[in-house]
Amino acid sequence: DADVTQTPRNRITKTGKRIMLECSQTKGHDRMYWYRQDPGLGLRLIYYSFDVKDINKGEISDGYSVSRQAQAKFSLSLESAIPNQTALYFCATSDARGDVRTGELFFGEGSRLTVL
Amino acid sequence: AQSVTQPDIHITVSEGASLELRCNYSYGATPYLFWYVQSPGQGLQLLLKYFSGDTLVQGIKGFEAEFKRSQSSFNLRKPSVHWSDAAEYFCAVGARAGGTSYGKLTFGQGTILTVHP
Q1: Would you state the pLDDT for residue A98?
Q2: Do residues B50 and B72 lie in contact, with contact meaning Cβ atoms separated by under 8 Å?
Q3: Pick the residue with more confidence: B101 or B31?
Q4: pLDDT tens per residue, range A36-45
Q5: Contact, B12 vs B75, CB < 8 A?
Q6: Model pLDDT, residue B6
Q7: Taking CA atoms, what residue in B is nearest to A31?
Q8: B112 touches chain A (CB under 8 A)
Q9: Do B103 and A94 touch (CB under 8 A)?
Q10: Which residues does A88 contact at the CB level (< 8 Å), separation at least 6?
Q11: Chain A residue with the nearest C-alpha to that of B98
Q12: So what's the pLDDT on residue A99?
């Protein structure tokens, strides 16, 4: 099984609908992230969480919200989806422990969201 | 704020040819640097990373990258490309502990590699 699991992997929805993307991890990492990938723009950070009680906005948080339900679970919500939120979404984790804390990210396989 | 530029959106090479993918970063001190690869329909896999020491870093699948502080670059190289290397490649920069952006990676726009037989 994958260390970082995203559900659903693919979703098509309509404008105005509420959507939740879920992420769970078995790596035991404290830090979790949601990134969005668009062609030609690379990956952009939406939200990140350094522990269960810590939630931070990334560079493109407008229109999104998150919930860190447990150390291993981090979900991303679109309260009212719009077409320009059509993208590939990645959840990632990193380990803040140890002497070498490089911030290396470990990614899930992505959730492709299409908003019509 | 940290930033990354990958000047080449798309590169095409022949199988067996050498490859160099460019990456330039902006950061006030020595950053952590990463190259990730994304195969079609897949997530991102780490190829290699630099955080200290030898500026020439070896990674998986025969890739290497060289950190050049004077040029703010971290270019990825491979001496002989295989058809299976066709993918999208992302360079990323991260701040060291104590930096204001510590714990977050900033990614470049990506370079799509096409390999001709």
Answers
A1: 56
A2: no
A3: B31
A4: 999 889 999 9
A5: no
A6: 97
A7: B103
A8: no
A9: yes
A10: A36, A37, A38, A110, A111, A112, A113
A11: A101
A12: 46
Q: What is the mean pLDDT of residues B24-45?
A: 89
Pick from A35, A113, A16, A14: which is nearest to B38 by CA? A35
Cα dist from A108 to A5, A111, B43, B48, B60, whole Å: 6, 9, 6, 18, 19
Number of cross-chain residue pairs from A and B with Cβ atoms under 8 Å apart: 61
Q: Which residue has the higher pLDDT, B104 or A90?
A: A90
Structure-block tokens of residue A62 = 């407008």
Taking CA–CA distances from B41, the nearest residue in chain A reads: A109
Amino acid at B74: F
Q: Tell me what the mean pLDDT of segment A26-34 comes to.
A: 92
Give the Cβ contact number of residue B61 at 10 Å.
12
Cβ of B105 under 8 Å from any chain A Cβ? yes
The answer to whether the Cβ–Cβ distance between A102 and B42 falls below 8 Å is no
Distance in Å, alpha carbon of A88 to nearest chain B alpha carbon: 10
